[in-house]
Specification:
Elements: H1 41-46, H2 67-87, H3 93-97, H4 108-130, E1 172-184, E2 189-200, E3 204-210, E4 215-223, E5 230-231, E6 234-237, E7 242-251, E8 256-266, E9 273-280, E10 286-293, H5 299-302, E11 314-321, E12 326-329, E13 333-338, E14 344-348, E15 361-364, E16 367-373, E17 376-382, H6 391-408, E18 416-422, E19 429-430, E20 435-439, H7 452-468, E21 475-477, H8 484-501, H9 508-522, H10 538-543, H11 547-564, H12 566-579, E22 583-585, H13 587-595, H14 604-612, E23 618-625, E24 628-635, E25 655-661, E26 671-675, E27 679-683, E28 691-693, E29 702-705, H15 707-719, H16 726-742, H17 747-753, H18 763-782, H19 786-805, H20 815-830, H21 836-849, H22 861-869, H23 872-884, H24 888-898, H25 904-916, H26 925-934, H27 939-948, H28 950-957, H29 962-972, H30 978-989, H31 993-996, H32 999-1025
Parallel strand pairs: 1-11, 17-18, 18-20, 21-22, 23-29
Antiparallel strand pairs: 1-2, 2-8, 3-7, 4-5, 4-8, 6-7, 9-10, 11-14, 12-15, 13-14, 16-17, 19-20, 23-24, 24-27, 25-26, 25-28
Helix pairs in contact: 6-7, 7-8, 8-11, 9-11, 9-16, 9-18, 11-12, 12-13, 13-14, 16-17, 16-18, 18-19, 18-20, 19-20, 21-22, 22-24, 23-24, 25-26, 26-27, 26-29, 27-29, 29-32, 30-32
This protein binds zinc ion.
């Protein structure tokens, strides 16, 4: 999945420390059901904490010496409970059916059994009651009280539900789903029937699977032997979105069974599950459309299923539809039959073996453009009036498909590959196998209005989703804690493939920028390891889809590729894909594939675990001493009180160190060595003036130099910056500003370094300098230090004046120079420098006079619209165009301009309208909120809006989702006062514990504190020398 990318990494200036956000301790797994598979060591580590149900509410207690005994007791208790609720089903029939615990038909024997059961139950309750509190956590009690939850789950009909964990048991596994759906797009309901072929891996009585929001009308069960359908009971436990089918007989190990479930449900009005939307076509006629978005946990809302990524199966899908609609699913269409009632039923071929979150279907009015690529039919679908914008996507997909097939040495296994532009879609895109879904703006390209940035966006997202067909679809992570294996790889391949086949787009600049922003987020205390062991609840799963899984994952792969060589990297991932096709894996399976190629000279698993199992990244300090280079590593932490995080002192990474120097032996080639201790030494063969470590910033770490080396580098940049690559120059700018935040270098020295920018012509260093200084500007501006903020702008303007003056209002040049133009003119117009605004306004009024028909240069279109939106007539005209235009690329530029208005009433109207999904689709809301919050007039308004509408927002976008993360960060990251800190904290505390504990909420609070401390530390210095 690609979360929406536009401005998605807007991260705050975070400087100092925060100690209040400790991670929740892991809880030892207690109650493994005896019929579960034996677990691999890793599975034990990642075993979810469903067993907490058994110990929650017991209160607080320090661990004592008898911890192990209590754990054993707990395991026994858990097992005893699980046996009671599943294994002893027959003998406990009375117990199950009478929730008050009484026994029917009291024969003497039964009474005896009852007494025994009651005595045993009392003993268990007493044992639990008297056990020390918090016995079962690894690290003792969490400081907050856990909410009390029932020990045994009760189904909706009042009976005991036989499974207490969030994760499903593995005694039964699905083999094949046969799914028939009949959606009604006007009543927004659907009827469904799913037949699941199952295999029992162990003897069991119950079949536990996922289902939510279904009205189940009939469930039948059939054994392979008798082939006689028997109607059976179903128990529902909505808390865990699970149902339990009580089998009429024991399911025997190795035997096959069939379950058929008939049900009905509503088509969702959110963006999750099987959801419906309406839109107006070009003749303003209302149209209906239904699509799916299942990742991570919503397949269960479309059909009852084993909704965990490791339960792979095949799928046969049938869809009944009205004649005018097209139905699409993962596989090619097998047949279309006209039914008696005039409806058409499409049946799709049986799928390859895959996870439930990859299943997809779409019903809507669509057109397509197709091309055959060696036996695979590639098609781009859009609503009919937008079919003219699909050509670019088709050409791009064909090239990328070809590239991936030969790079991975594995053919794409399906006969077709559809990419569909959905009129309303929350994520950026989704990689459903064979049926990739996109927002219109991430798939469609309009030559007249799409900028070079738009072209890059479309190309990158197609590359990302296509890479998932191998990384994620063919080989899948076992569980969501390792979602970086999907997303980190797809993100890495997105940049890698673009560099290989669309080199002219200079996508490395975007990857570099993304790495800088990711490290900023990863340096917070609220960060997390990308391979995390404590992921279980739906919020925790949603939260794993954050920029760390995507970009830290991709950055680590880039570092590894650079260290091992491109050749070894490719061979290892080919092996990995071949060995694990159609199965699911852990991170270690990936590292094992690499170890096959390193000939025992390097343990890749040992090395990479230091990066994936720890949060944060290292700060490497470099000192020159004659021919020796002394190196030290420590965690780069914005925490200024290291004693609060003693565990960080032991942080150690295995760092591939690359470097160049001005010495003649080192300037031409990159040198690499591995720093796997706290400190190390590199012996050079000659003395050098300067050394630059982390060549091209391929390593995921920040470098600090002793004073004389910083001086020498600054001097070198002034004399001739081009001795270093543009990536290195951008890297130095990034590192020195981050170090200034940490107090390791003075802010003045950071500005001294960017003084060379007068001679800079490349995009990456200028963009990074503008980003760093813009963050400072934003803080000063929002705190009302108007004079200081404008002095800062003047300082930066003087550095970039000549480059700004050279810009023209055209689309000429390479993609990189076009993007630089866009950045520079936007900066100049935003701060009313040179004659930027006047030039932009002239273009705007000419465009307005032509009723929007005159073409504008696409790269500066947003800047032109922003100038126009500041005028009364301009804003209204832009809004009228927004409503009527057919190009999403142009509409987005207009929307950004509308949301940059200085009129708060207009800003409020925009947010409100987008929340209602009236003229502006709700998919754009987080973008609008972030844009409104960035500028002075709207930054308080945006937060007020979020508070006012919080419940609607989480209903629409789900707690923990990428959109919610983006809204929380976007509306709070420029706050820098105590009053705001208290307010944000109080607001989220008053919601629910789950809300307050969201990582994005903790991050928001940490960022506000860091902002406050940054201002406190630097305001005086800035006043003095700016
Ligand atoms: Zn993805």
């Amino acid at each position: 999945m690609e979360p929406f990318t536009n401005d998605r990494l807007q991260l705050p200036r975070n400087m100092i420390e925060n100690s209040m956000f400790e991670e929740e301790p892991d809880v030892v797994d207690l109650a493994k059901e005896p019929c579960l598979h034996p677990l691999e060591p890793d599975e034990v580590e990642y075993e979810p904490r469903g067993s907490r149900l058994l110990v929650r509410g017991l209160g607080e207690h320090e661990l004592d010496e008898d911890e192990e005994d209590y754990e054993s007791s707990a395991k026994l208790l858990g097992m005893s409970f699980m046996n009671r609720s599943s294994g002893l089903r027959n003998s406990a029939a009375g117990y199950r059916q009478n929730s008050d615990g009484t026994c029917p038909a009291p024969s003497a024997r039964t009474i005896g059994v009852c007494v025994c059961i009651i005595l045993l139950a009392v003993a268990i309750i007493l044992a639990i009651y008297f056990l020390p509190r918090c016995t079962f956590t690894k690290e003792g009690c969490h400081k907050k009280n856990q909410p009390t939850e029932p020990i045994q789950p009760i189904a909706t009909n009042g009976k005991l539900f036989p499974w207490a964990q969030i994760r499903l048991p593995t005694a039964v596994t699905p083999v094949r789903y046969d799914l028939t759906l009949h959606p009604n797009l006007t009543s927004m309901t659907f009827r469904g029937s799913v037949t699941i072929s199952l295999q029992a891996l162990q003897a069991t009585w119950n079949i536990i699977l996922h289902s939510t929001g279904h009205n189940i009308s009939r469930v039948t069960f059939m054994t392979a032997v008798s082939s006689q359908e028997k109607e059976v009971d179903v128990l529902e436990y909505p808390v865990h979105e699970q149902i339990a089918i009580v089998a009429p007989e024991t399911l025997l190990e190795g035997h096959n069974y069939t379950l058929k479930i008939e049900y009905s449900a509503n088509i969702s009005s959110s963006y999750y599950g099987f959801y419906g939307i309406s839109y107006r076509d070009e003749s303003n006629e209302k149209k209906y459309f239904a699509a799916t978005q299942f990742e991570p946990l919503a397949a269960r809302s479309a059909f009852p299923c084993f909704d965990e990524p490791a339960f792979k199966a095949t799928f046969v899908i049938r869809i009944k539809r009205d004649e005018q609609y097209t139905a699409l699913s993962n596989m090619p269409k097998k047949s279309s039959v006209v039914l008696e009632d005039g409806l058409v039923q499409d049946e799709f071929f049986e799928s390859v073996k895959m996870s439930t979150y990859l299943v997809a279907f779409i019903v809507g009015e669509l057109k397509n453009l197709s091309q055959d690529v060696n036996g695979t039919l590639v098609s781009i679908y859009a609503v009919p009036e937008k079919i003219g914008q699909v050509q670019h996507a088709l050409e791009t997909t064909v090239k990328l498909l070809d590239f991936y097939q030969s790079y991975f040495e594995i053919q794409y296994p399906l006969k077709k590959l559809d990419l569909v532009a959905i009129p309303d879609f929350e994520a950026g895109a989704m990689e459903n196998w064979g049926l990739l879904t996109f927002r219109e703006e991430t798939l469609l390209y309009d030559a007249n209005t799409s900028s070079v940035a738009d072209r890059k966006l479309v190309t990158k997202i197609i590359a990302h989703e296509l890479a998932h067909q191998w990384f994620g679809n063919l080989v899948t992570m076992q569980w969501w804690n390792d979602v970086w294996l999907n997303e980190g790889f797809a993100t890495f391949m997105e940049y890698f493939s673009l560099e290989k086949i669309f080199g002219e787009l200079s996508s490395y600049e975007d990857f570099l920028d993304a790495r800088f922003k990711t490290m900023k987020k990863d340096s917070l205390n609220s960060s997390h390891p990308i391979s995390s062991s404590s992921v279980e609840s739906s919020e925790q799963i949603e939260e794993m889809f954050d920029s760390l899984s995507y970009f830290k994952g991709a950055s680590l792969l880039l570092m590894l590729k650079t260290y091992l060589s491109e050749d070894i990297f490719q061979h290892a991932i080919i092996l990995y894909l071949h060995n694990h096709s159609y199965t699911s894996i852990h991170s270690d399976d990936l590292w094992d594939s690499f170890n096959e190629f390193t000939n025992k000279t390097l343990d890749v698993k040992k090395m990479m675990r230091t990066w994936t199992l720890q949060k944060g990244f290292p700060l490497v300090t470099v000192q020159r001493k004659g021919k020796q280079i002394l190196l030290q590593q420590e965690r780069f932490s914005l925490n200024v009180k290291p004693e609060i995080q003693p565990s960080d002192a032991s942080s150690l990474w295995h760092i591939p160190l690359s470097y160049i120097t001005d010495g003649k032996n080192y300037s031409k080639h990159r040198s690499v060595s591995l720093l796997d201790k706290k400190s190390g030494v590199i012996n050079l063969t000659e003395e050098v003036q300067w050394i630059k470590v982390n060549t091209n910033m391929t390593g995921y770490y920040i470098v600090h130099y002793a004073d004389d080396n910083w001086e020498a580098l600054i001097k070198q940049l002034k004399i001739n910056p081009y001795v270093l690559s543009d990536k290195d120059r951008a890297n130095l700018i990034n590192n020195i500003f981050e170090l200034a935040g940490l107090g390791k270098v003075s802010l003045q020295r950071a500005f001294d370094l960017i003084d060379y920018l007068r001679n800079e012509t490349y995009t990456a260093p200028i963009s990074e300098a503008l980003l760093q200084t813009e963050l400072i500007y934003n803080l000063l501006d929002k705190l009302g230090h108007v004079d200081l903020a404008s002095r800062l702008v003047n300082k930066v303007f003087k550095l970039l004046q000549s480059q700004i003056q050279q810009q023209t209002w055209t689309d000429e040049g390479t993609p990189s120079t076009r993007e630089l133009r866009s950045v520079l003119l936007d900066f100049a117009c935003a701060h009313r420098l040179e004659n930027c605004s006047a030039a932009a306004l002239k273009l705007f009024f000419d465009w307005m006079a032509s009723n929007g028909t005159q073409s504008l240069p696409t790269d500066v279109m947003t800047t032109v619209f922003k100038a126009g939106a500041k005028t009364e007539g301009g804003w209204s005209f832009l809004l009228s165009k927004y409503v009527s235009l057919g190009s999403e690329a142009e509409k987005n530029k207009i929307l950004e301009a509308l949301a940059s208005s200085e009129d708060v009433r207009k800003l409020y109207w925009l947010m409100k309208n987008s929340l209602d999904g009236d003229l502006i689709r709700t998919q754009k809301l987080s973008f609008i909120i972030r844009t409104v919050a960035r500028h002075f007039p709207g930054h308080l308004l945006a937060w007020d809006f979020v508070k006012e509408n919080w419940s609607k927002l989480v209903q629409k976008f789900h707690l923990g989702s990428y959109t919610i993360q983006s809204i929380v960060a976007g509306s709070t990251h420029l706050f820098a006062t105590k009053a705001h800190l208290s307010e944000v904290q109080a607001f989220f505390e008053n919601q629910s514990e789950a809300t307050f504990r969201l990582r994005c909420v903790q991050e928001a609070l940490e960022v506000i504190q860091l902002n406050m401390q940054w201002v406190e530390k630097n305001l005086k210095t800035l006043t003095y020398w700016l």
